Hints:
Layout: H1 2-11, E1 18-23, H2 29-36, E2 40-46, H3 52-58, E3 62-65, H4 73-77, E4 85-90, H5 99-104, H6 116-127, E5 131-136, H7 144-155, E6 159-166, E7 177-184, H8 203-207, E8 218-219, E9 222-226, H9 232-239, H10 257-260, H11 306-312, H12 330-339, H13 343-368
Amino acid sequence: xVRRKRNIENSFKTRARISAIDLFCGVGGLTKGxxxxxxxVRLGVDIDPACEYPYTANNNSEFLLKSVQxxxxxxxxxxxxxxxxxxxxxxxxxxxxxTYNQKIxxxxxxxxxxxxxxxxxxLVKELSPELVTMENVPGLIEYDIFDEFISDLKQxxxxxxxxxxxxxxxxxxxxxxxxxxxxxxxxxxxMLSHRKNAKLKTVRDAIGKLPPIAAGGVYEKDPMHQSSTLxxxxxxxxKASKPGGTWRDWNSxxxxxxxxxxxxxxxxxxxxxxxxxxxxxxxxxxxxxFGNGRFGHPKQNRAISLREGAILQSFPRAYKFVQxxxxxxxxxxxxLIGNAVPVxxxxxxxxxxxKHVGEYGKNFSRKNKHRTSGKA
Length: 376
């Protein structure tokens, strides 16, 4: 065990040898996680202008406001540091393949997001980086486009591994299942395994010490720690809600008419409170609304705040999402946080890559000692 730990620590000495580009970077959850373990992320690419400030304000990286469909390999290739092992990372928009979307409408070829994974594959072929990683929803595995992505990687000479992980196993205070893919031209690569029987990080651990606020209130020292207002009816509902319970526990007068219908009785996971000593439910893009899931605070009569949602996504408490003095658009910030890669998951992905480079980095030196990567 001591020898294994020492080998992992020694592999971290390779940190300066990896530079990365993050496609579909969002507000920088994956970038921040990679940076925290020493990977040099040089550029983030996203089509959403709301991502630019949080991405650049919190990460030592440039931001390119552009659709990945329109990105040419020559305009981003020079961002890699010459002589380093190059990583191309990304999380193509996953709503098309999400469980929720599949309940209301099957993913279809008319949705442009369907083809963004193919654009990712195009850039892999054109840039030919030594390393590739992708994070997405588990449902993507069921589609031919994922099989095609894997096939393309293997044809380009990559060793590929992928698995579905539960983020809570890696210290993220949230039940969130994600598909993580790793690919390498250096040799076989795998995601680091989590510690078995490790203590889960709970809602209490994550947000238990934040200052209390009322429904519709804002904490003066952190405008992100704000919660949505509640209607008189929803205030009655949350007061009647127990941590971990459902609307089925309420007096019938409080139950929404839609849930009294046979079609609505199968949706108990709304209007719920979180439990202090368990992990949070999956943080969605609408986590700030009490009626949108189990997003009621365990004790206070309100939905969780924007800051609490970000912390449950493992963003640092001081992570900046808007410039000082700017108005906070709750719907926009909620969407950005809910769509983000959890920072801690980015760290685990980064550590997996660093360990791999520690084991197979000599292959890069032998095969690429005469290669140049362009201008930094």
